[in-house]
Design a protein that fits this description.
The chain has 331 residues and is an alpha/beta fold. It has a domain of 86 residues. The strands form 2 sheets. Strands 6-7-8-3-9-10-12-11 form an 8-stranded mixed β-sheet, with helices on both faces. Strands 2-1-4-5 form a 4-stranded antiparallel β-sheet, with helices on one face. Belongs to the ABC transporter superfamily.
């Protein structure tokens, strides 16, 4: 049995204008010790997929389907039961640590509170473990830093504190929502290496939400590409970079700068993501897709297996798209 199994997850928000379907039938599985990258543009439904599982949707949001953690459905679970799991067995790192950390509390209080609640440790025991975890995420002078407030730390250090807080209870799954977006490239590399090391040491499964395929290449074993609230492609990371079989995935890869190609312009994807309050008929990507046919605008493709490649939702032949991408990229 997978550690986490999501089946037909749907997330809908009620607004004054219309109901917005942010996530539409997402399914995936996560094994113990595995890293899954969820990739897509802003508004593709990546973050809402995770927030729905953790019961953190906005008040006007509703989730349906299944999110089975060790066989228990997180969706619709009573708040008291979910609170025993959330922050303990399931943890999350948010994109902006400055807005996630409480500016009025010291790092010590924000960390020890978690251990007192979930592990029933005394304040002294909790502080000792908190310092140990700060040292594990390579914060220098941890015994001194723990008494400081968030504004006294750099952006990279605040993100390390967030990682340390998320790992205090040694969770089974760590959800990381764009954990390196606000950091410069040097600190970003350090944080990614830290996540790799911590996963090796603690055996934690990771779900990484990102728009950066470079981050996915360095950390993830499996990838799920989302667009317009749907899964476009899902496969091993190595397969995705060598043999992308969906036009949207190919578009994302072509927009990446490459060290092995000099000159030329980056190939962007024309157009804008769909308005999910009034989604287009058929495949959500068809209005921006150079390979779209009349069928693409009429009927949304099902997510189906492509040989041993993985899963994808597209009406166009997979082999032709893979071959063309490899020829144009000189893979």
């Amino acid at each position: 049995m997978p550690l986490l199994e999501v089946n037909g997850l749907q997330v809908e928000f009620k607004t004054h204008d219309a109901a917005v379907r942010a996530v539409n039938g997402v399914s995936f599985a996560l094994e113990e010790g595995e890293t899954l990258g969820i990739v897509g543009e802003s508004g593709s439904g990546k973050s809402q997929t995770v927030l729905a599982m953790l019961g953190l949707l906005a008040s006007n949001g509703r989730a349906s389907g299944q999110a089975l953690y060790r066989g228990e459905n997180l969706l619709g679970m009573p708040a008291k039961a979910l609170n025993r799991i959330r922050g303990n067995r399931l943890s999350i790192i948010f994109q902006d640590p400055m807005s996630s950390l409480n500016p009025y509390l010291t790092i010590e209080r924000q960390m020890t509170e978690v251990l007192e609640l979930h592990k029933n440790l005394t304040r002294r025991e909790a502080k000792k473990r908190a310092i140990s975890m700060l040292e594990a995420v390579r914060i220098p002078e941890a015994a001194h830093r723990i008494g400081q407030y968030p504004h006294e730390l750099s952006g990279g250090m605040r993100q390390r504190v967030m990682i340390a807080m998320a790992l205090l209870c040694e969770p089974d799954i760590l959800f990381a929502d764009e954990p390196t977006t606000a950091l410069d490239v040097t600190v970003q590399a350090q944080v990614l290496q830290l996540l790799r090391d911590l996963q090796r040491d603690f055996g934690t499964s990771i779900v990484l939400i990102t728009h950066d395929l470079g981050v996915v290449a360095g950390l993830c074993e499996k990838v799920m590409v989302m667009y317009g609230g749907r899964v476009m492609e899902q496969c091993d990371a190595s397969t995705l970079f060598a043999k992308p079989s969906h036009p949207y995935t190919i578009g994302l890869l072509r927009a990446l700068p490459r060290l092995d190609q000099e000159g030329g312009e980056l190939a962007g994807i024309p157009g804008n993501p769909p308005n999910m309050a009034h989604p287009p008929a058929g495949c959500p990507f068809h209005e921006r897709c150079a390979d779209a046919t009349a069928e693409c605008g009429e009927r949304a493709p099902a997510l189906e297996a492509v040989g041993t490649h993985g899963l994808r939702a597209c009406h166009r032949p997979a082999d032709a798209l893979i071959t063309r991408y490899q020829e144009q990229s000189h893979v």
